[in-house]
Amino acid sequence: MTTWRVEVPARWQQCATCGNRLDELDARTSCPECGGLLDVMYHTPAGRAAELRRLFDSRVSLRGTPRDRSGVWRYAELIMNAAPESIVSFPEGNTPMLASERVASWAGVAQLQLKHEGMNPTGSFKDRGMTVGVTQAKRVGARAVACASTGNTSASLAAYAALGGLPSVVLVPAGQVAAGKLQQTLAYGARTLAVRGDFDACLALLRDAAHRLGIYLLNSVNPFRVEGQKAIVFELLQQLDWQAPDWIALPAGNLGNTAAFGKALDEASRLGLIDRIPRLLCVQAAGAAPFYRSFQSGFAERHKSRAATVASAIRIGDPASYDRGVRALRLTRGAVVAVPDEEIIDAQRCVGSAGIGCEPASAASVAGVRAAVKSELISPEESVVAVLTGHLLKHPDASTANDANGGNSPVEIDPSIEAIERALH
Ligand code: F0G
Predict the structure, then answer these.
(1) Nearest CA to 316 among 305, 327, 325?
(2) Cβ < 6 Å from ligand 1: which residues?
(3) What percent of the chain is predicted at pLDDT more than 90?
(4) What's the CA gap between 97 and 162, in Å, rounded?
(5) How far is CA 1 from CA 59, 72, 281, 363, in A?
(6) Other Cβ atoms closer than 10 A to 45
(7) Mean pLDDT, range 78-85, rounded to an integer
(8) How far is the C-alpha of 138 from the C-alpha of 178, rounded, in Å?
(9) Which helix or strand (DSSP H or E) is residue 352 part of?
(10) DSSP string, 160-213
């Protein structure tokens, strides 16, 4: 039986640039005064850490409402005050923390855990933000939902929109989306527009068009997506019994997840759920590294680039959540590294050979840990959680094309025992 002694605090939206306040149920996804990005705000209840920990522990269950079954809604007090019957949830979350000696020794740290977000219902961490985003879409009475995507957000949006009974529209860069992700998006019924342009062009176009078309925008510029993605951090901390690791490594593209991790760590610390804040290690692909370049200049300048990398999920040259990303890095005394494609593929091969597997963008976080150990940013004794953001099956074509299977390929044989023996010799 869940006890409800922790009140769910009231919320509002606030512009991160000019401080303008909007109602929680305002459907605009940027500030009407200055165009800045919005944050969801609430007063973090002080002195309730022990009670909250007990409450979150009591909710882990196979049965009951989304608060009991979902690894997002378990933390409802820290995410959204939605009536249980209005929640659009598969459920999601409850993803494993995996330890592999092989991957740890490849990366060069003794204590490495892999938080496998590819184990979500549509195979990526996006489901965490989308359950909250689509629930909010229903709360504000949206007629339809939309996103621009490199593939995972669109798969997730399409699935949650279908579950919630809302039409969905997605804009993807033509010819640049991994096969698995496109198949999901189509199968779940999203109207899919393949734009002749890159991801950055898709997002810019949609941010202009969404309001005019009366469609609710569900990219991670939407602050409710960020609220859901905070649950990755809450859940990994709960799995570690609220003993914060030294570092949390994650791939960084549009910086929505970086923003969510920073906000989650800020709130967890204010609430007293953790007594120190882990450092964020944001990992970009060398060919799509505008945030890395800005980090190198102490964030004196906002860089943009034309993005090119095998990790198509993070092929992004103008991250929309740049300001929020900077805030997260400053709060956590974090760092940004950039890794070349060959190292991303090496990491993917290593994670695959451990029986775990992930898509190239996710392997970037493991490649980034190795690079950070080599450059002595991370010391081998420090504890690290690396987030694997998407499933191996998302991007099967990349595995074959880049030999992420470590030279392993099927051996065709005649149907005889002798042929098996010959092949195994
Ligand atoms: N890893 C994967 C597997 C992703 O799909 C993405 C982003 C990221 C990391 C980076 O997260 O953008 O919040 O910094 N994918 C988006 C999409 C862009 O459309 O699916 P971010």
Answers:
(1) 305
(2) 124, 126, 149-153, 220, 251-258, 313-314, 359, 361-362, 389-390
(3) 90
(4) 29
(5) 9, 19, 39, 40
(6) 18
(7) 92
(8) 29
(9) helix 341-353
(10) HHHHHT--EEEEEETT-S-HHHHHHHHHTT-EEEEESS-HHHHHHHHHHHHHHH
- Ligand 1 centroid to residue 169 C-alpha, Å: 18
Tokens describing residue 202: 């898709």
Which atom of ligand 1 is found nearest the CA of 390?
Answer: 3
pLDDT number for residue 4: 39
**Which is nearest to 129 in space by CA: 38, 218, 39?**
218
Please tell me the distance from the alpha carbon of residue 139 to that of residue 117, in angstroms, as a whole number. Answer: 26
Q: Tell me the C-alpha distance between 160 and 89, whole Å.
A: 8
Q: Which of 122, 128, 152 to mutate to test the pocket of ligand 1 (most atoms within 8 A of CB)?
A: 152
Q: What is the mean pLDDT of the chain?
A: 95
Q: How confident is the model at residue 144 (pLDDT cuts 50, 70, 90)?
A: very high
Residue 10, pLDDT score:
87
pTM: 0.96
β-strand pairing of 11-15 with 21-23: antiparallel
Q: What's the CA-to-centroid distance between 49 and ligand 1, angstroms?
A: 31
Residue 82 has pLDDT above 60, yes or no: yes
Residue with tokens 């994670």: 351
Q: Are strands 38-42 and 11-15 parallel, antiparallel or unpaired?
A: antiparallel
How large is the angle between the packed helices 322-331 and 256-271, nearest 10 degrees?
40
Name the β-bridge partners of 115: 97, 387
**What size, in residues, is the chain?**
425
Give the residue with greater pLDDT, 399 vs 339: 339
Residue 2 predicted with pLDDT over 50: no
What is each CA distance from 112 to 151, 226, 366, in whole angstroms?
28, 25, 9
